[in-house]
Amino acid sequence: MTDIVFYEKPGCGGNARQRALLEAAGHTLQRRNLLTAPWTRDSLLPFLAPLPVAQWFNRAAPRVKRGEVVPEALDAEAALALLLAEPLLIRRPLMQRPDGARLVGFDLAEVAAFVGLSPADPATAGPALAGALEGCAAAPGAKPCPSPSPSH
Predict the structure, then answer these.
(1) Is 60 part of a structural domain of the chain?
(2) Catalytic residue among 4, 8, 12, 111
(3) pLDDT tens-digit series, residues 75-87
(4) Residue pair 23/2 in contact by the 8 Å Cβ criterion
(5) Predicted TM-score of the model (pTM)
(6) Could you list the residue range(s) of the whole structural domain that residue 12 is in?
(7) What InterPro entries has UniProt attached to this entry (predicted)?
């Protein structure tokens, strides 16, 4: 199986479900805190550059949800500066394989191709599970992920 560097938000239930799926499939994760990683333009841009700018952002981030940050209104330079200043805005998880390949987010089909999960495997199949793996979908009655500070 694959050894994956997995950048996550500590305490995020969505990231916990994503980790559990990858680990159940036999992958080893090197967990890293997305919020405190020493991001630079050169370390973050290789994850993001293949995607449209709007897909760089965590849609569940409070500033995005409140409309203070509108990803579609930003060019790449402005977006990158904002993400470096506020890592909570970065779409997660970020994953990197030993060969240097990178992935942003947890679209089940993309993750399956990235690390070799089988779409036919009952653990990875089904629209309900797929929806629970991308973003911050919380179970009914569950508490939302902790925020690092009230201003974010």
Answers:
(1) yes
(2) 12
(3) 999 999 999 999 9
(4) no
(5) 0.82
(6) 1-34+92-119
(7) Arsenate_reductase-like, Nase-assoc, Thioredoxin-like_sf
